[in-house]
Automatic annotation (TrEMBL):
This is Exodeoxyribonuclease 7 large subunit. Heterooligomer composed of large and small subunits. It comes from Halomonas dongshanensis. InterPro entries: Exonuc_VII_L, Exonuc_VII_lsu_C, OB-fold_nuc-bd_dom. One of its GO terms (molecular function) is exodeoxyribonuclease VII activity. Residues 128-439 form the Exonuclease VII large subunit C-terminal domain. Residues 268-303 form a coiled coil. Belongs to the XseA family. Its main location: cytoplasm. The gene is xseA. It holds the Pfam family Exonuc_VII_L. Its EC number is 3.1.11.6. It is found in: Cytoplasm. It is an enzyme of class 3 (hydrolase). The keyword Cytoplasm applies.
């Protein structure tokens, strides 16, 4: 090895010698650990990190060897692999070149997650299922102020419901400080909600990441704090496949931050379309109703006759009855005279004085009966005429005017039926039950 500055190694020579030393001294080894950050580029190689609770090492499984591995190789899997310790010279990265991979059971993190999940589930910490206000009056968001999650949430809220009242409480969402910070913020929000009842929903969110990145949301104390929160909580942590204890403890779980925003507020564009559809249906129904009423009014107008026409018909009928009565009376008198003449001739050879007296008496009786019949007939006709006049008067517009109504006419004598047929300042004539009034339009009402 060179010992003088003049004999200094280049970086590439140093990395080369280091690689050779690692491969020569350690050779092929078996290593057990947990998979993390598994990546499968288009080249067919598999890159990943193998770790335990104190250290980690980068690993590569090249395509020629990857096709012989039956294990699915997912984040969190506990595996044993055989490989050679080496160094990637261009970057000086220490790595393990894997030759074979065997499954070694669930990773420690997943095992701890399952144990804690079962414990909290048995205690009832996952029993929350309160409905969220829709839309919330004030939305409180616990998230990183610089993360992609808060940008996605705010973008969706702005597009769907711009009037949303949103307050961001910035907290760390990764690392050892994340869970205590979220617990403290959640407690503070619950205490403040007693003074400000408008606050009604808390959203806890962050973007996707590895199991280690999301581990703060599997904190037992955070799950309990969410369970005991007075304010309803929605959790949206990671991607759709990511599930944390915070998701189980929350009242509602959303698969992504964007999906959470979509569930929290309505889509104003959809509501506007629905409102426009209701408005169109209302207008169509109103138009149909107006058309039906207009047709009904035209039908009633066609049936309505002018009182003068009704009176004229009644007069004609009365004249006809009078003529019929006169003819009947004349026929009756003629017939009675003929009978009297006949009887006179028949009685000529008899005791004329006695017969004359008898006929005179009979004639007087007939005349009295005839006179009485005429009086009764005339009285009945007068009664019918009076009833017809009362009936006609009941349907007469003039009778309606007599009850306090009025007919408005313009200066041309046209009847005014709607307020929009007039203009402010226009002179109108009001026909009342008795007399007329001249008025001026001051204001129209609909």
């Amino acid at each position: 090895m060179p010992s003088l500055a003049s004999n200094a190694l280049s970086v590439s020579e140093l990395n080369k010698r280091s690689r050779q030393a690692l491969e020569r001294d350690l050779g092929e080894v078996w290593v057990e650990g947990e998979l993390s950050n598994v990546s499968r580029p288009a080249s067919g190689h598999i890159y990943f990190t193998l770790k335990d609770d104190r250290a980690q090492v980068r690993c590569a499984l090249f395509r020629q060897r990857a096709r012989f591995v039956s294990a699915p190789m997912r984040d969190g899997d506990q595996v044993k692999l055989r490989g050679k310790v080496s160094l990637f010279e261009p970057r000086g990265d220490y790595q393990l070149i894997a030759e074979a991979v065997q499954a070694a059971g669930l990773g420690e993190l997943l095992a701890a997650f399952e144990r804690l999940k079962a414990q909290l589930d048995e205690e009832g910490v996952f029993a929350n299922a309160r409905p969220l206000p829709f839309p919330p009056r004030k939305l409180l968001i616990l998230s990183s102020a610089s993360g992609a999650a808060i940008r996605d949430v705010l973008a969706v809220l702005a597009a769907r419901w711009p009037m949303a009242d949103v307050t961001l409480i910035p907290v760390p969402v990764q690392g050892s400080e994340a869970a205590p910070a979220m617990i403290s913020a959640l407690g503070l929000l619950n205490r403040q909600s007693r003074l400000d009842p408008e606050r009604d929903v808390v959203l806890i969110t962050r973007g996707g990441g590895s199991l280690e990145d999301l581990w703060a949301f599997n904190n037992e104390h955070l799950a309990r704090a969410i369970f005991h929160s007075r304010l309803p909580v929605m959790s949206a942590v990671g991607h759709e496949v990511d599930v944390t204890l915070a998701d189980f403890a929350a009242d509602v779980r959303a698969p992504t931050p964007s999906a959470a925003a979509e569930r929290l507020v309505p889509d104003r564009r959809s509501l506007l379309r629905e409102l426009q559809e209701h408005d169109a249906r209302l207008r169509r129904a109103l138009q149909a109703r107006l058309q039906r009423d207009s047709q009904r009014l035209d039908h009633l107008r066609a049936r309505l006759r002018h009182p003068g026409e009704q009176l004229a018909r009644q007069r004609l009928h009365l004249d006809s009855l009078a003529k019929r009565l006169e003819r009947a009376m004349h026929q009756t008198l003629t017939h009675s005279r003929a009978q009297a003449t006949q009887l006179t001739r028949r009685l000529a050879g008899q005791d004329m004085a006695r017969l004359h007296q008898a006929e005179k008496t009979r004639t007087a009786q007939l005349e009295r009966r005839l006179t009485s019949a005429m009086h009764h007939t005339l009285e009945r006709q007068r009664t019918r005429l009076s009833a017809a006049a009362r009936e006609l008067n009941a349907i007469s517009p003039l009778a309606v005017l007599g009850r306090g109504y009025a007919i408005a006419q313009d200066d041309k004598g046209q009847v005014i039926r709607r307020a929009d047929e007039t203009t402010p300042g226009q002179k109108l004539s009001l026909r009342l039950g008795e007399g007329r009034l001249s008025v001026e339009v001051k204001r129209r009402f609909r």
